[in-house]
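We close this part of the discussion by returning to an individual protein. Part of our work consisted of pairing the sequence of a single chain with a tokenised description of its backbone. What the numbers capture is local backbone geometry rather than side-chain detail. The amino acid sequence and the backbone structure tokens for this protein are reproduced below.
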Amino acid sequence: MKLLLLANCWCALAALWGLAGEIEPAAARAPMADDPAAPDSGALSSRDARVLRVEETVDPPQRFIYARFHLPSLADSYTIELRETRRLERLLGHHGRDRFGPVAYHVDFAQDETGALRLDVAAAIHSKDALAADDLPPGYAIKTSTPYRSLTLVFKGSPVDASVFWGRLEQMAVARGLTLSGRNREVLVDHDGFVATDYVTKLQLGVRHDRRS
């Protein structure tokens, strides 16, 4: 009996030690090659983010996280507001297994009164100059280039769901006289050495006006 108790205590201590190693800060971890927060990728990094405010709704249960990234390499800045139903830590990717946060599948293209293009992907991209308007909330600054307005979408889902989502994007772009270019890359997620069964799909989009239309 004593040997059994000692064995149980040892297992409990080992489990606690594993948890302690699991919650180490993201800064202590080397970024993965497919990590969108890798410093040499040109993508968004949670280390450059500053959370402005967090709002929650009851019906439907949603969490609106307003944050801003500061990237010195931006050639042209736009903002994006992400609507997330999970933890703030998951969206900003503070820990290794939570670095990929899903985004909703609500997508739309539109033009504002000034003729500037707006792409809604459970979010809204507006020109930097329009941030002075009171009705435009601050959000994520994303890397973009003119005349292309580009962003990277990262969400969990099957390859089939990713293909359907990409098809919807293309249809909406064509219907609005826009040209949509990009590439779809699927990454098998590795959670601390254990291969997961879900995929992370990255959509890198470039949207521009079709001047021939």
Observations:
- Residues 30-209 form one domain.
